[in-house]
UniProtKB/TrEMBL annotation:
The chain crosses the membrane at residues 15-36, 146-170, 191-216, 337-358. This is PepSY domain-containing protein. The keyword Nucleotidyltransferase does not apply. Keywords: Membrane, Transmembrane, Transmembrane helix. PANTHER family: BLL7967 PROTEIN, IRON-REGULATED INNER MEMBRANE PROTEIN-RELATED. It comes from the Bacteria. The keyword Transmembrane applies.
Length: 378
């Protein structure tokens, strides 16, 4: 690689790193508790658990579940009914003032077997909520989300340029070398480069999936414009139904065409994931991978008949796969611990890179063969 090429890569690495580092540190710090959000919820007493019951215990009707939840908040309308992929003992019923409104959101956790209310998770307060909002949009909505996506793109540029610069920098040093006898700045430089190359693949995957996740709203809007509008075309211009069919009958109709799948969530008519005329029943598989994917089934809200069902397009599938991969929550406790260790290592990489830039005065001892900024690898 020529000196001119090295200088270009060093310039890309330096400025992409400097612009995004503070925000990436924030994302790593907020992402760490999100990896263990269930465990933290248990410690704080905010995690809702269903009492132990036999696996083959009778299941409550979804109509009963909805009625129990709405009785807690009279006047509110159903938006979603959902279950966690790894827990089918609880239905989470989300209510709002209107199906298309985010105002007055309430969520009620109902035992899927007894139909009893277990609690009401807070949707707008608490430690995990604060961490999540900072991580997702900086409490700034879609503009904040897209801004973090742009910072993620700069992180990817910093990772790629750092990988390009690593080879020339380490030509005279063995892999993993930390020059303990050298100055503090040189020791931090060696540790920065070592941890940077070790976490390279993980940081790139998490950074890429993070960027994809920031595009969730535009991706869902594209799916609605492209697929959902085609699936609901026969209903264009028709007035919405005044009365809705049984929720349980609608779900049973969806399951009848996909008997090997289970319900992930149900979107009520008029919400983002349905139409004014349909329940959107989203089904999932039971394997580690398919449990994170969904298949939409549109059910006529007037008579509980299935009107359309099709596989999700590739761009929505990519979004759904990127979400669990980003937080490492699809492989149990061992993967959570691995994700946490790599997250902490990345925090050290980012912090040391910032330190190296702030302390960039060179001495004869720690002058390196690359242009200024080439060592700041993140």
């Amino acid at each position: 690689m020529t000196a001119t090429s090295l200088r270009r890569w060093a310039w890309i690495h330096k400025w992409s790193s400097l612009v995004c580092t503070v925000f990436m540190l924030l994302l790593c710090l907020t992402g760490l508790p999100l990896i263990f959000h269930h465990e933290i919820g248990h410690l704080l007493g905010t995690e809702i658990e269903a009492p132990a019951m036999a696996p083959d215990a009778p299941r409550a009707s979804l109509d009963e579940v909805l009625a129990v939840a709405k009785a807690r908040h009279p006047g509110k309308e159903g938006m979603f009914v959902s279950q966690e992929p790894d827990d089918d003992a609880i239905w989470y019923v989300t209510l709002a003032d209107t199906p298309r409104s985010d105002s007055g959101l309430k969520q009620v956790a109902v035992d899927a077997r007894s139909g009893e209310v277990l609690g009401e998770p807070s949707l707008d307060s608490g430690f995990i909520h604060v961490m999540y909002q900072l991580h997702v949009d900086l409490f700034a909505g879609l503009p904040g989300t897209l801004f973090l996506g742009a910072m993620g793109v700069l992180l990817l540029a910093a990772i790629v340029s750092g990988a390009v610069l690593y080879g020339p920098f380490m030509r005279k040093l063995a892999f993993g070398t930390v020059r303990r006898e050298a100055s503090p700045r040189t020791r931090w430089l060696d540790l920065h480069n070592l941890l940077g190359i070790v976490t390279l693949a993980w940081a790139f995957v998490v950074g890429l999936t993070g960027v994809i996740n920031t595009l969730a709203d535009p991706i869902i809007d594209l799916w609605r414009f492209d697929e959902v509008s085609e699936m609901t075309a026969p209903y264009q211009g028709l007035p919405p139904p005044e009365r809705f069919a049984s929720l349980q009958r609608s779900v049973d109709a969806a399951l009848a065409i996909e008997p090997d799948m289970t319900v992930r969530f149900i979107a009520f008519p008029g919400t983002t994931f349905s139409s004014p005329h349909h329940y959107g029943v989203f089904l999932r598989g039971d394997a580690p991978l398919t449990s994170r994917l969904v298949k939409p089934v549109l059910v006529d809200a007037r008579d509980a008949t299935v009107t359309d069902s099709r596989e999700l397009p590739w761009y929505v599938t990519g979004l759904l796969l990127s979400q669990p991969l980003h937080f490492g929550d699809y492989g149990g406790r061992p993967l959570q611990i691995l994700w946490a260790v790599l997250d902490v290592a990345t925090i050290v990489v980012l912090g040391s890179g910032l330190y190296l830039w702030l302390r960039r005065r060179r001495t004869a001892e720690d002058r390196d063969p690359l242009p200024a900024g080439a060592e700041v690898r993140q």
